[in-house]
Each structure stands twice: as C-alpha cells, then as structure tokens.
Hints:
The structure holds 2 protein chains of 2 kinds.
Chain A: H1 3-31, E1 33-37, H2 39-43, E2 53-59, E3 65-66, E4 72-78, E5 83-89, E6 101-108, E7 114-120, H3 130-148
Parallel strand pairs in A: 1-2, 5-7
Antiparallel strand pairs in A: 2-4, 2-6, 3-4, 4-5, 6-7
Chain B: H1 2-30, H2 33-36, H3 39-62, H4 69-74, H5 81-86, H6 92-113, H7 119-143, H8 167-196, H9 201-232, H10 243-268, H11 272-294, H12 301-306, H13 308-336, H14 347-377, E1 383-385, H15 387-407, H16 418-424, H17 426-443, H18 448-475, H19 482-488, H20 491-516, E2 518-524, E3 529-532, E4 535-546, E5 551-561, E6 564-569, E7 572-576, E8 581-585, E9 587-589, E10 594-603, E11 609-617, H21 620-637, H22 644-658
Antiparallel strand pairs in B: 2-11, 3-4, 4-5, 5-6, 5-7, 7-8, 9-10, 10-11
Helix pairs in contact in B: 1-3, 1-7, 3-6, 6-7, 6-8, 7-8, 7-13, 8-9, 8-11, 9-10, 9-21, 10-11, 10-14, 11-13, 14-15, 15-18, 17-18, 18-20, 20-21
Amino acid sequence: MKARHKRFGLIAVGLILLVIATVLITKSFRSNLVFFFSPTQVEKGEAPKTGSFRIGGLVENGSLKRMPDGLHVQFKVTDTAKSIPVQYKGILPDLFKEGKGVVAEGKLNENGLFEASQVLAKHDENYMPPEAAAAIEAANAAKTKESVK
Amino acid sequence: MIPELGLFSLILAFFFAIIQGTLPLVGVWKNNATLSNFAVPAARAQFVFIALAFVCLGYSFYANDFSVLYVASNSNSHLPLVYRLAAVWGGHEGSMLLWVSILAVWTMAVTMFAKGLPTSFRIRLIAVMGLVSVGFLAFIIFTSNPFERLIPAAVDGRDLNPLLQDPGMVFHPPVLYMGYVGFSVAFAFAIAALLDGRLDITWARWTRPWTTVAWVFLTLGIAFGSEWAYYELGWGGWWFWDAVENASFMPWLVGTALIHSLAVTEKRDAFKVWTVLLSICAFSLSLLGTFLVRSGVLTSVHAFATDPGRGLFILVYLVVVIGGALLLFALRAPTVGLGERFDVVSRESMLLANNVVLAAAAGSVLLGTMYPLLMDALGAGKISVGPPYFDAVFVAIMVPGIFLMGLGPLAKWKKASLPEIGTRLRVAAVISVVSALLVPSVMGKLTLMAAVGVFLGIWVMSTSLILLVNRLKTRQTAVPNLIENLKGIPLAFYGMLLAHIGIGVFVLGVTLVKGYESEQDLRMEVNDVAHIGNLAFRFEGAKEVAGPNYLSSLGKFIVTSNSKEVAVLHPEKRFYPVQGAMMTEADIEPGVLEDIYVSLGEPLENGAWSVRIYIKPFVRWIWAGCILMALGGILALMDRRYRIVNKKETREAQEGFEA
C-alpha cells in the first residue's frame, strides 16, 4: 500500500464516519425537539395527540387543587382566552403561584387533561416565562381583533 | 459623587483602551518605537481606572446608595454585607463590569509576566487585548451603565434575587469569568501570531501556560456552578443542559481541544493552523456565552429587540471580533505552514481524534443551544431542545473519545504500532472489563449504560497508571532508585496523568449517580418514618425561624441506618418578603459513597409537609474529578521547562527575530 492509497482510504473512512455522525445527530435532534402550544391552540386541537409538548400561560386564580395524597396537584393554565386543566405529581417549583406565569411539559390524555411531567416556573417575581408571555400576547391580540369586528 | 467618579474612571479607561489598542499596532507596523511604547503604560493605566470603577460600584453597594439604579435593583439594606458585595455582579450591568475588570487583570498579568517575548510580538499581544477591551467598555458606557442614577432615590432596594444569596455567588462568577476571559489571552496570542506571520514551537510554548491557567479556572468555575445548582435548586440535579450552562461548557470543550492541539504544536511543530483556529473559536464561544447569559436574549428574543441599542451593539461586536479574526485567519493562515508529517497510527493522529471528538461535541451542544433561539428570532415558533438530545448525542460522541484517551498517551510520536500498544494495555483491559461487570452488580443491577460507563472510567484510570509504570521501567536501568526515578519525571507528565484520572473519576461519578440514584416524593406527617434503601428518615416537624432578610420553616429529619443515627438534616423553606419569593434550601449529608439529600416541598395540613428525599451514590466524584483535572493543569503549569528553557529559547527567538 502506497502512502497515497493509505491517505485516500483514511479520508474515505473519515467521510463515512462524518456522514453517520451527522445522520445520528440530526435524527436525535429531531426527535427531541419539544414544541410549544398556547391553551387556545390546544383547545383548537393543533397540539400533538400523542407526543409530549409544552404549554404556557398563567396559573388560573382559584384553580389549584391538591389531591388528598398531598402530592398530586391539579391546576388550570390559561392564556386569558382559553384554559387547559393540568395534572402533576410531585413538588411544585418555588415560584409557582396562582396568577403567575408557568410553563409545563407533558402529554394530553384522552380526556383533555394535560399530564405534566415537568413544571417550570423560575427566576424572580416579575419574570414571565417567554412562552407564557407569548401565549397571553397572542390571545389578547386575537381578542382585540374580535372586538374590532 | 462616588458613582460619578466610577463612571468617569470607566470613560478614562475607555480612552486608555483605545490608545492601547491602536497606537502600538501602528507603531509596530511603521517601526516607530515611540508609538509602540504606549502599549504597556496604557494597559496599566486602563487597569487602574477599571479597578477604581469597580471599587466605586462596590462602595455604592456597601453604603446602600439606592440613588444608583443598579444598586436599588439588586440590593437591599437588610441584605448581609457579603451578598451586598457579591451583588456587584448580580445583574447585567455589574457582570459586564466584572468581565472587563477581569480582562484588565489578565492584561496586567501579560504586561508583568510575558517579559520573555520578542518586543514586537508582546506589543501586538497587548494591543489586541486592548481592542477587545474597547468594545466591552463602549458597550458598558453606552448601553449598560451600572452607575446610572435613580431620581428620586429609592427608599430601599428591590433585593438580590434570593437564588443568588448563597456563598456560590461569591466564588462562582469571578472564577468562571477568569476562565472565560482568560481565553482572550490565547486569542490575542493567535491574532498576534497571524499579524506577525510567525507560528512555531516557541510560540506554542509561550501560549501554553496562559491557556492552561484559563482552562483551570474555567474547569473549577463550571464545577462550582454545578455543585451550587445541585444544592440550591432543590431538585438534586447537577447538570441541566440549560442554555446558561451550555454557554460555559462550549468554551471548555474547545479549550480542552486547544490544550491538546497546543501540545502537538509545541512537541512536533504540527497542527499549527488548527491550533490558531481553536484559539479563535474558544474565545469566540466565550464571548457568545457571555452575551447569551447576560444580554437577556435567553429570557426572550423579543425583550432583546425592544432594547435595540444593546442588541445591535452586541451583534456588531460579535461580528467584528469573530468575523475580523476569522478573516485575518483566512488571509494569513496559509503562510503559517502545515508542519511535520505523521503516520496514521501515531500520537499525533490520536490527538487529532481527540480534537475531532471535542470539536464535534462542542458543535452538537452549539446546535442544541442556538437552534431554538434562531427559530424564535425568525418567528418560526417556540421550541425547546430537550436534555435527552444532549444526553444521547454527547454520550455517543464521548464514548469513543474517552476510550482513545487510554491509547493516546502510550502511542509514540510520528509512528506508533498498534500491536505494541495493545500488548501494553492487556492488563488495563482485563481490569476494566472485570470492574464493568462487577461494580454495577454490586450497586444493584447490571445495565449496558452502567457497564460501559464503569469500563471507561476504570479504563482511563488504569491506562494512566500503566503509562506511569512504563515510563518508570524505561528509565529503570539509568535511574535504579525508585524515588529518584519518580522525581526525574517532569511535572507536566504527572499533570497529564492527574487530569486524565480526573476524567475517569468524573465518568464513574456520572455513571453511578445516573444509574443508581433513588428519589422519593412523599407526604410526611410529624414523626412519620420513610424507608429508602437501608436508611430510615424520621420527620420531626418544622418550626418557624427568622433569618436576617427572610423567614424560614426549618425542618428536622433524623436519618438512621439499622437504628444507628447517620445524620440529622435541616432542610428549609425560606420566604424573602422584599421580592415575595419562596426558596427551597435543601440539606445534604455528603459522603464519598453517597449523598443523602432532603428538601421540603410545601406545607400541608396539620404540620405535615410534602418532602423530597434523594440518595445520590458517588455524586461527589463528579466534582472531585473536576478538581483533579484542575490540579493536573496546575501541576503542568509548574513544569520547570516553562521557566528555564523558556528564557533560553526566547532569547534565541528574540535574536532570530531581530536579525
């Protein structure tokens, strides 16, 4: 084997590895993208029926209910137009409060209950998760349009 | 007055930075010594005025001057002094000031310790650092002035975010920034080399210690941050693949690649162009990281756009620095030369593989971090990239990389023989395979993930020890005394061993905590007992306690193992009235083999609480591994060749340069 052949073989192997790596990375990337939907979009049935996604908005006032076991909680997430019931098992984050912004990740079950695997509410009091803020903004914009009509 | 003095010193520093960044470059170009000689005094003057500005801001916090907007937004008269001072870097404006102060510290260090370099090279180096500083100072002065007045003054401040009121806040940001900003020195070395057209073994030898120092700081900074998140956030995770964390991790990956590539440049005069590119990339990622974390772009791309001044400035700055550096690279890199050739199986090719692995890892993290931001900015909807992506891709890329770590150091430069390496590593392979089967079985159940992880961890450690034994054996006839023999091996070699063993310790920690941690969320009434593993947790109730600026519910748990007391834990739930914020303070009984971790959820009826209990086996090994890596870096820095040989070679270089 001449040095030239050797080098050619090496480059070929390198390229093949690169292609395999790229394919694997993009595949894993695609399957792990989590999309975001506002309560209005979920109501309209735009959210995926099976896979998990994120919803965001405000925790509706007076909607937080604790199940007798002390660990399961239910609350509603609203974008001020529509609201979606959410169930979660576990300890809620420190900044979780009624009337404040929240983002939850999970799946919609067949009864339209959003089963959250994760509830996010971070940063300070004035902070609103960007997804939650966007959902409320969109709902408000839709309402204004309605009233103009 | 003090805040105005601070702003005034910042403006003066800005002018000195302009002088430092321009005149000397012209001086070197036109061969004008008068202009060149501005470099060092301008850099030192800049340092003095930035330090003064920093002290002024610190004083405003110390004196509770709530007529300063930044102080009023990030402090409070009830905040303990140490956190008032740490609050200097608690927000955007102050952390930018910390950044530029640390850049000034590094520049000062270059003017003091980089004496052996040829004059023109040293001047270019300082000038490039001046240019970096100009951009940052302009950004602070024009868009993020920390000394802005609040008229009328606030009666009291809005307090520091309770999450940040922790000893971690005192150490983590400065150490991390020392690392981030430290890569500016490697960057300046690369730019100066490109301007200069000289890039050889001596250049690599000058650059290496600076890069290693920055890398040591970055390693420690990330480890501190991870440990802080672990105990502070109350859910026991040590790494979340959060954009803020990724921002610090990408420069670390590229910086690690750079350290290895520099080794090849120094020893073999190869990988030169690649080394320069890595230096540019490491610092570019540091800049990107700083802005990702500090500009608010993560909170919302749109909030970022509502302050067009800041957003535009940042984008322009990034384009100028990164684009300019890459343009210079494209123009000048061909003159640098490719360097020595090497065989397919050789130390060089192993280190090349290491670099490819690390660069690919950094690239995949970059993709996952930037893609959601990009989509959002383009109005293509809100998405997030889940941790499973990072876990899967990162592990897949790192597994072969870590396996190669065992082979690389044993391979000879230029041309190595695989069968020979194989023979030498037989023992290590046997030890690793046996441990991979044994350890997971002892811990609980044998899974593929745990077996692979334990194999790699033990593999890295055992091959490192075999490397040491080999080295001793080859010298045995010349130096029969074992102690003398050990002493004769350069410190840099021990540094490498220690850092590699650190990776092994880290991998073991990650594998075992991922595979065998246990978690329980419970509802516990007073005197309830929970059983997890062979431990029993008795909840003795929670009582109200007042802290300096918070109210606390202090829980008490007695942990017993076979009715013997193991630990008493006091997790807290704190309420900070100024920001109306709740904070969970977990309590942890740390241990070499496992951490016992308890945090309080919410109060339920009749004094009952929701409680979260974790057992985290080997979690300390994660940070112990990082500390070993950093210690390895420090050992390598103390190698005598940087002190003795450096002087001789630079004298030669100087002569060659002037000739």
